[in-house]
């Protein structure tokens, strides 16, 4: 077995993970081991697996990239795998769960301390520990998710097999690909957000070169005077299915909402909780909670 005897369960607004530390690079998981650990019936259960290790211990990270991550202050790396065993470029919620885990292990500082710079396959993400903060909850972190790219607004047609109707979607690159559909805006004929069947994987046309996450959003309120808005989102993640939250998906949603409304600051409710997304021209920030659930000793 190439995983340690002791692992932990964590979640960030319901996006849940199996997580463990591997400072010496001894425990790179196989795809079968990831699928076993993330299985909700035969394993521990999770939307993915997080291995906290150093950049030089990640097989698909080159020596030059590892050196560059260290030069940017990222001593630690979030090696994230989807529940199906596939590698993933990024997981916004996973960065918060990883930062809290690193904090408890003494690898990261607490509230008021130095920001935690975490290497990922999508570059360095910087996290600031904020403690408890409404409306996000306990052990809140603000993550600088870095630069973003958005395609033409509403350039894609999105359908859900077995569900009548369609919606228009906007492509956003957050280091991983997203197509965001804002419902009830006059273009969508899909049911309301709460009524969607996201067990079935949505279909995006034209087809992207790589598989994508699909987000469905309702605008609940907006105030141009304060540059703030509220929205509700659900998401189907590639390699996982519907999850209670998706950090990069929340960021992609805020970016799409900015394009449609001109509003930069959003409070977004997902099935796992409430988070804040703040969009700038050159980067996006995600603020939300993280939770360590327990320690598991594997037999």
Automatic annotation (TrEMBL):
InterPro entries to which the protein is assigned, alphabetical: DAP_epimerase_AS, DAP_epimerase_DapF
UniProt subcellular location: Cytoplasm
GO cellular component: cytosol
Coiled coil: none
Site for Could be important to modulate the pK values of the two catalytic cysteine residues, residues: 178, 237
Broad class of enzyme this protein falls into: isomerase
Molecular function GO terms recorded: diaminopimelate epimerase activity
Binding site residues for substrate: 15, 82, 92-93, 176, 213, 237-238, 247-248
EC number: 5.1.1.7
Residues the record marks as active site: 91, 246
NCBIfam families noted in UniProt: DapF
Function: Catalyzes the stereoinversion of LL-2,6-diaminopimelate (L,L-DAP) to meso-diaminopimelate (meso-DAP), a precursor of L-lysine and an essential component of the bacterial peptidoglycan.
Subunit structure: Homodimer.
Protein name stated in the entry: Diaminopimelate epimerase
Naturally occurring in which organism (per UniProt): Bifidobacterium thermophilum RBL67
